[in-house]
C-alpha cells in the first residue's frame, strides 16, 4: 500500500514538465487531480512565501511517508483507479477474442480431436471384432486338421490291415510250398534209403556166400 | 527548509532513477471520453499473438500432431479439464469463455514480464501488461458476473433467484452481497498481483541492477501464470455454482 501511494504521489512531484517543479513541488497537482480537492491544496497553490513552501514540503514529505487515508484515496482515484471508456472497450475486445478464438481454435481443433478419438475408438472396436473372427477361423482350422488326421489314420489302418492279410497269404503260400518241397525231399530220401538198403541186402547175400565159400572147405 | 527541500529532491531523484510510472496513462480521446492508450495497444498485441499463433499452428491439423498443433491440443485439453472439473458434464458451451479468460490473462501477464515494451517510448505513461490496469481486470470480472448470471438464468429460468433465499431467507443480504464481492475480489486480486509484480521487479532493478532481481522475475512469471489459472478456475467455479441444482 505504501508503495502504491508513494508511487502515486510521485506525480505530485515529477509530472509537471517544467524544471521549476523541482523547487515548487506541490502547487501543480491541482491540474492532475479531479475537482473535489482537499482543502489544504488550493491554499498552497495560492501562497508563494518561503514559509508556505516549507509547509508544503512538510506536507509532501508526510504524504510520501505516512498513508493519510483521505488524501490517499483521492490521489489513487485520480491515478490508479480511474475508470473510463477503456473498460467497455476491453470487454468488447475480450468478447471479440472469444468468438475469434472459438472460430479458429476451440471449435475446429475440438471437433478434430473428438473426431480422432471417435475414429480411434471405432478402429479399436473393429479390431476386437476381427479378433473374434480370427478365433472362429482358428477353430475351423483346428476342426479341419482333426478331420484330416482322423481320415489319414483310418486310411493308414486300412492299408495296414490289407498289407497284413496280403503278407499272411503270401506267407502261408510260401510255407505250403516249402512244406511240399520238404515232403518231396523226405520222400526221395526215404526211397533212396530203401534202395540202398535193398542193394545192401543183395550185397550182403553175395558177401556172405563168398565168406561161406572161403571158410568152408571145398568138397 | 533547506533540509526538507533537499530531502524532497533526493526523493525525486530516486523516483527518476527507478522510473516507476504507476497510475500514469497515455490518454486518448474518443468522442469526448478518455481511454488508456497504452492498455489498448498492449491488448491488441496480446490478441494478435493469440489469434496469429493459433491460426498459424492449426491451419492444417494432422492426425498425428506435431509441434505447434501438439501444444495447442495440450492447452485445449487443459482448458477442457479445468472447465469440466468446475462446471461438470455440461461444460461444453463454456470452454470458449473459460479458455479465452485463461489465455488472455496468461498472455497479458507474461507479455508484461517478457516483451520489451520499454523500447517503445510513449509521450506519457508506459506500455505494460494490460492486466496492469484496473479497467481490464474489472472488465473481465464483470464479464464473469454476466456469464454466471446468464448461465444460471438459461439453466433454471427465474428459479435461479431462488438461490438467494437458500438455505434460509436470513442469508438473503449475504447472498446478494456475494454478487458484489465476487467481481470485486476477482478484479482486485489480479490487478494487485500484476501491479505488485511489476513494481517489485522495477524497484529491485533500480536498487540492484544485477543478478538479484532475476529470481524475483521468475517468481513474477510463476505468479502471473497462477493468477491466470486462478481467475479462469474461479470464473468456471462461479458458472458451475450457478448452474448446479439446489435441491
TrEMBL record, chain A:
Belongs to the ATPase B chain family. It comes from Cynara cardunculus var. scolymus (Globe artichoke). This is ATPase, F0 complex, subunit B/B', bacterial/chloroplast. The lineage of its organism: Eukaryota, Viridiplantae, Streptophyta, Embryophyta, Tracheophyta. It is a single-pass membrane protein. Residues 1-15 have a biased composition (Polar residues). GO terms for molecular function: mRNA binding; protein domain specific binding; proton-transporting ATPase activity, rotational mechanism. It is found in: Membrane. GO terms for cellular component: proton-transporting ATP synthase complex.
Automatic annotation (TrEMBL), chain B:
Pfam families: ATP-synt_A. It is a multi-pass membrane protein. Its main location: membrane. Keywords: ATP synthesis, CF(0), Chloroplast, Hydrogen ion transport, Ion transport, Membrane, Plastid, Thylakoid, Transmembrane, Transmembrane helix, Transport. GO terms for cellular component: chloroplast thylakoid membrane; plasma membrane; proton-transporting ATP synthase complex. GO terms for molecular function: proton-transporting ATP synthase activity, rotational mechanism. It is found in: Membrane; Plastid, Chloroplast thylakoid membrane. The chain crosses the membrane at residues 35-58, 94-114, 134-153, 190-212, 218-239. NCBIfam families: ATP_synt_6_or_A. PANTHER family: ATP SYNTHASE SUBUNIT A, CHLOROPLASTIC. Key component of the proton channel; it plays a direct role in the translocation of protons across the membrane. Belongs to the ATPase A chain family. F-type ATPases have 2 components, CF(1) - the catalytic core - and CF(0) - the membrane proton channel. CF(1) has five subunits: alpha(3), beta(3), gamma(1), delta(1), epsilon(1). CF(0) has four main subunits: a, b, b' and c. This is ATP synthase subunit a, chloroplastic. It comes from Cynara cardunculus var. scolymus.
Amino acid at each position: 500500500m505504501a508503495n502504491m501511494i508513494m508511487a502515486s504521489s510521485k506525480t505530485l512531484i515529477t509530472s509537471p514538465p517544467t524544471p521549476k517543479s523541482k523547487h515548487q513541488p506541490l502547487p501543480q497537482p491541482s491540474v492532475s487531480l479531479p475537482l473535489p480537492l482537499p482543502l489544504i491544496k488550493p491554499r498552497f497553490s495560492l501562497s508563494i512565501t518561503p514559509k508556505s513552501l516549507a509547509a508544503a514540503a512538510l506536507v509532501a514529505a508526510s504524504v510520501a511517508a505516512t498513508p493519510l487515508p483521505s488524501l490517499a484515496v483521492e490521489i489513487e482515484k485520480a491515478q490508479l483507479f480511474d475508470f473510463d471508456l477503456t473498460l467497455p472497450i476491453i470487454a468488447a475486445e475480450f468478447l471479440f477474442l472469444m468468438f475469434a478464438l472459438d472460430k479458429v481454435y476451440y471449435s475446429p481443433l475440438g471437433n478434430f480431436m473428438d473426431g480422432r478419438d471417435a475414429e480411434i475408438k471405432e478402429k479399436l472396436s473393429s479390431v476386437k471384432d476381427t479378433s473374434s473372427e480370427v478365433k472362429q477361423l482358428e477353430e475351423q482350422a483346428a476342426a479341419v486338421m482333426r478331420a484330416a488326421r482322423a481320415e489319414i489314420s483310418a486310411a493308414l489302418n486300412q492299408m495296414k490291415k490289407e498289407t497284413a492279410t496280403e503278407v499272411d497269404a503270401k506267407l502261408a503260400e510260401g510255407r505250403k510250398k516249402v512244406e511240399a518241397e520238404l515232403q518231396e525231399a523226405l520222400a526221395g530220401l526215404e526211397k533212396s534209403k530203401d534202395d540202398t538198403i535193398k542193394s545192401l541186402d543183395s550185397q550182403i547175400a553175395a558177401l556172405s556166400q563168398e565168406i561161406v565159400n572161403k571158410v568152408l572147405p571145398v568138397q | 527548509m533547506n533540509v526538507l527541500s533537499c530531502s524532497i529532491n533526493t526523493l525525486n531523484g530516486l523516483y527518476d532513477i527507478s522510473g516507476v510510472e504507476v497510475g500514469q496513462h497515455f490518454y486518448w480521446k474518443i468522442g469526448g471520453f478518455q481511454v488508456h492508450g497504452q492498455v489498448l495497444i498492449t491488448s491488441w498485441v496480446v490478441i494478435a499473438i493469440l489469434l496469429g499463433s493459433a491460426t498459424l499452428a492449426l491451419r492444417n491439423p494432422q492426425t498425428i500432431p506435431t509441434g505447434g498443433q501438439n501444444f495447442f491440443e495440450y492447452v485445449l485439453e487443459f482448458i477442457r479439464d479445468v472447465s469440466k472439473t468446475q462446471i461438470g458434464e455440461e461444460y461444453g458451451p463454456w470452454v470458449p469463455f473459460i479458455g479465452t479468460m485463461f489465455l488472455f490473462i496468461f498472455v497479458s501477464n507474461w507479455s508484461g514480464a517478457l516483451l520489451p515494451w520499454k523500447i517503445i517510448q510513449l509521450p506519457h505513461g508506459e506500455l505494460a501488461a494490460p492486466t496492469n490496469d484496473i479497467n481490464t481486470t474489472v472488465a473481465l470480472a464483470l464479464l464473469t458476473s454476466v456469464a454466471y448470471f446468464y448461465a444460471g438464468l438459461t439453466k433454471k429460468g427465474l428459479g435461479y433467484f431462488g438461490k438467494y433465499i437458500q438455505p434460509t431467507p436470513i442469508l438473503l443480504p449475504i447472498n446478494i452481497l456475494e454478487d458484489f464481492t465476487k467481481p470485486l475480489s476477482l478484479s482486485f486480486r489480479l490487478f494487485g498481483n500484476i501491479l505488485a509484480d511489476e513494481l517489485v521487479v522495477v524497484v529491485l532493478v533500480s536498487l540492484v541492477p544485477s543478478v538479484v532481481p532475476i529470481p524475483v522475475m521468475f517468481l513474477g512469471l510463476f505468479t502471473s501464470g497462477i493468477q491466470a489459472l486462478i481467475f479462469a478456475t474461479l470464473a468456471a467455479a462461479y458458472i458451475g455454482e450457478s448452474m448446479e441444482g439446489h435441491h
